[in-house]
């Protein structure tokens, strides 16, 4: 739980709540279902001996990356001290469930299934913390037992490389649903077979194949996520979907020109599907104040403009349980195709901005909403209820 207390003090100084608001917000958070619309479970830091061996042997980028993820997601939890810290970090953040990214930024089945396998193994191994949660109705039961849950998403729709027919290529949507996946990115930052990503200048929109993919997701019970999709792709996805569409970790274009932000027209279309926009916790995407106050500003704008039923918090953040160790021998490689893109809106941010938006500061997000005058019932929708509702409607 690196710097958790320090980050909480930073956020408290920025919010400056009254004693009454602070006490009420913390109590409300403790007694509410808290469902992160998109984030990352607390992960191990450090570096394994296996990674160092692979680096010294001149292994490929993907070999080293897989070993790195194995350590952070699985092997690091063999240490009883880290397992204890894992449970304490979840409790400190007061979160019950995360819509967890369990598949890399890709449509490639092999790449998607590697991370899915790692997180599945973690859930099965750390049984003193986690329970499987394939259906949202189970979440309240898991919470009542004092355990935590990961609800699974992938950063891409799995597509067969055989390309026999469009219909057959989409059969894997149901296969991944059977493995526990409940939400999928239509695109990442770049263009793919579904449509244009949010960092593409063309903004060409959703493809015919993308429409077929959404229809299959609707049929199976998978939520279409347009967080990394272009404005036109996001709009057309919402217009063609028969079930809720979400932008799980985004920001409001009213306050941000970042390519991940969604304009009012897109948010309105998402609203009409009965979906939501999850506001993320990255200063660069928020712009404006770039700290916890900016996060509350974005939530406040969406709630007041489009309704409190259509906003959530998708932090896109996680917590590190021990110091990350960087090897000087780490090879420099080009970034993978789907994940990286040169686009405006990047830049340095003050450490305090990042600190105030730490994943462990989730209880203070609730305090911030109390300070803005939201009712308890409306706050409960924002911090988890809206995500739960969309999960249930999608599976209905």
In short:
The chain has 396 residues and is an alpha/beta fold. Helices cover 46% and strands 10% of the residues.
Could you name the CATH homologous superfamily? Metal-dependent hydrolases
Residue stretches low in confidence (pLDDT < 50, at least 5 long) are none
Question: How many extended strands?
Answer: 10
Q: Evaluate the radius of gyration.
A: 20 Å
**What oligomeric state do the depicted chains represent?**
single chain
Helical run tally: 17
Structural class: alpha/beta
State mean pLDDT (0 to 100 scale): 92
Q: Return the string of H and E elements.
A: HHEHHHEHEHEHHEHEHEEHEHHEHHH
CATH C-level label: Alpha Beta
β-strand percent reads: 5-15%
Question: How does this structure look, described?
Answer:
This protein has 396 residues and is an alpha/beta fold. It has 17 helices and 10 strands. The strands form 2 sheets. Strands 1, 2, 3, 4, 5 and 6 form a 6-stranded parallel β-sheet that branches. The protein has a 4-stranded parallel β-sheet with strand order 8-7-9-10. Helix 10 links the parallel strand 5 and strand 6. Helix 3 packs antiparallel against helix 4. It starts with a helix and ends with a helix.
